[in-house]
Input
Amino acid sequence: MQDLLIVVDMQNDFITGALGTAEAVKIVPRVLELVRDFKGKVLFTRDTHGEDYLETQEGRKLPVPHCIEGTDGWQICPELAPFCGGMSIDKRTFGSSELGRLLEDLDRENSVKSVTLIGLCTDICVISNALLAKAFLPEAEIIVDASACAGVTPESHKTALAAMKM
Output
């Protein structure tokens, strides 16, 4: 049995860049602590957009270019980058079907007991990938560590946590 930790979108643009927040900055030390001390496999996701971001549906609804592939804003924050070890999934949507398939593969190799999610943003990508993890691994315990997550706003963070409790 194995435990997995998924670090969701801890990228410069969500912490100190285009969509950064004080709450995101505040969780970096806690995320670092969890990554450093985790005894299982650690996976990272990266929100990934192209130069045509503003022409996409997301770009039309949120017209703030962010996480453009190859830019500094797209990179995992410097504190966490050394821990990626090539295990990052570039996701072009809120929830990553590639992550779901990887979870299934990992479960086939060695049963997944639990999946813990941390990172950004609780109310968009964390909740999307938590639901996705439950769909791909229905018998695994899905955990979201609120102390290592931040939402677009403190209120939407709390709302997402409440929804995931169900």
